[in-house]
Each structure stands twice: as C-alpha cells, then as structure tokens.
Amino acid sequence: MPNNIQAELSHKFTLRIIEIVFTTIVLSLIFRPFFIDLPIYFLLIGIADLFLMTGFYFIVRLNLLPKWEITLSLLIALIIILPTLAISGGVNSQMVYFLPLYPILAALLGGHRESLALTVTLVAGTILATIFSEYIVDLTGGVYSKEMSTARGFWLTISIILSAFFGHFFLQRYTEVTKQLKEENTLDPLTGLLNRRGLNTHFSKELEETEITSSPLSLILIDIDYFKKINDRYGHDVGDICLIEVANVLSSTLRKRDIIARFGGEEFIIILPSTTKNQAALIADDLKNVISKQKFSDFNLPITITLGVTDSRGQHDNALKMIKRADKALYRGKDKGRNCVELSE
To answer: Where does a domain end: 121, 155, 185?
Structure first.
C-alpha cells in the first residue's frame, strides 16, 4: 500500500510539472516577441516542444508507461533545452546557468542512476560545445572570444560535476533518514520487534503471496501467562526486561523466513509462511518448551506462555479473521490452565 501511494503521488507530481512546462512554453511563444526579436528558429523549436510536451502529457495521463515516467521526463527536458542552447551560443548561452540543476533534479526525481547518466551527458556535451565553440553561431547576436568560451565551459563543467556530487549526497542522506523513519514507524521501541504497523505490511504481502502460489500460511498468537502479577510484584521495569528477553528467545528460536511482532502488551504474533497448521503446532510447542526452560530478569523468574494456532483458509480469508481465530484458540488454552498450545477450530 505505501508503494502504491508513493507511485500515485509521483504520477500526479509528474503531471503537474508537465502542465507547468507546457504553460511556460505557451506563454513564452505568446509574449517573447514583445520583448525580444529572435530568429524564426526559436519559434519553430518552441512549437516542436509544445507537440512533444502534449504527447508526453497524454502518455503520463493515460498511465501508459508508469515505470518510465521519470526517465522520460529527464530525457525530454534535455531534448527541449539542448537545441535552444545549440543556437543561442552553446556554453555562452544565458540558459546554461540552469544546467547544474539537472543532476540534482535527476537524483531527487529518479535516483543515482538517472543522475549519473544525465551528468555524463551534460559534461560530455559541455566539453564538446567548448571545444567547437567557434563553430557555434549565436542567433541572438552575441559575440564571444575563444578565451571567454573556454572559461565558461570550464566553470560550467565544474558546476555540473559538483551538482552531481551534491545530488548524490542529498539523495543518500534522504534515503538514510527515510529508512530510519520507516524503521521507527514499524518497530516496537521496547523489544525491537515489528509493531502492528510493520506486522500489517508483512501480513498483507504474505497473504498476497499465499493467494498467488496457493502455499500454506499459518499464524501463532502468544500471550505471557500471569504477566500482570510480574508487573504488580516486581514493577514495570522488571516486566519490560522480561518482555525484551522473551522477545529475544522467541526471535532466536524461529526460522529466518518467519515474521514476529509485538501485538500489544504481553502478546506476540508470529507469521509462518509456507507452513501448515500442523507444522505450526509443532513450532508452537517448541517455543512453549524453550520459554518454560528459561529464567528471566535478574530475579530468575520462571515464565510460561500460551499459544493459539491457526492457518489461512483460502481466498476469502484475511488477517483479521486469522487473528480472531488464533485469539479464540489462545483463550481456550488459558481456560485449560495456560502453558499450552491450542489449535483453532
């Protein structure tokens, strides 16, 4: 779901950018003749850019190439700007001052690969335009010396490279911060296990995988027996330590592909991909035995757990139904005296 929301926002953002560029081109074609007298080439290029942006707008609007929208945006930006640069003085054009922004935009909108490709293209084009600057005719009427063109080409190249490094650094920091925020939003701060938000994300993926592959999926709901007595007698600090240690024991006992989360209070939930209910019952029994053999906190407290086990039941099943079945099984286990494994009906 978060990926879908991000893709939709990116899609809408791309549409807004296209609309702004389209409007800018139209306004420049209408009002530019009132301020500056330019050769007919600029008018023809502007009209060609309008057709290009119109076609691209409908491609994005109809969502024909969703995976290529950013790459196409960057490519079309170059297609629009390079012809104008070529006939307005090359590296001496007033428009080149915008070029160092492109690697940053490519990094923010696309990623490292897009930024690198754009940087290489711009640097190569700038070097060639500098070398052959004497053959580039400025149709706006500007006259430049060889030394001026070389100096501008040099500093433009340096600016583009520095811009690419800045874009790379910014994107790296942004990725790190985003990852940290995502982890903080999906992890339980006490035990370090997934919280409910993180559980829901993984649970949805596993249910989709189960539906596609028709593979089994099981769930174990765990409750620490008489945990309230530990809090009342020894205090919540000791209770928290017991929760952390129980979480660590459960995590270390499970398989790598299994998913464990703190469900709330003293409850834990485990998702077991490609696992039948009978197999899940054996895993639950192992967890019960491992916990009952351990001592927890500095007070060496004995702890037991009660476990409810269920499995996915086809296309019309969902996370909520599975948890409810496991919860009912868990409470039957409590009614039978706790420290046991109970299967759902």
So the answer is: 185
What confidence tens digit (pLDDT) does each residue in 73-86 have?
878 877 887 777 77
Contacts of 128 (CB under 8 A, 6+ apart): none
CA atoms within 13 A on the CB side of 323: 15
Which range among 26-35, 203-212, 248-257 shows the weakest confidence by mean pLDDT? Answer: 26-35
Provide the CB-side half-sphere exposure for 118 (13 A, CA): 34
How far does CA 113 lie from the centroid of its chain? 16
Catalytic residues: 266
Distance between CA atoms of residues 301 and 242, nearest Å: 8
In sequence order, the β-bridge partners of residue 261 are 194, 269
Q: Which residue has the tokens 């019960």?
A: 288
Tally the domains of the chain.
Answer: 2
- CATH number for the domain harbouring residue 250: 3.30.70.270
- 206-247 pLDDT, tens digit per residue, is 998 888 888 999 999 999 999 999 999 999 999 999 999 999
Containing structural domain, residue 243: 196-343
Q: Do 88 and 139 touch, CB atoms closer than 8 A?
A: yes
Q: Residue 243 domain-assigned?
A: yes
pTM of this prediction exceeds 0.70: no
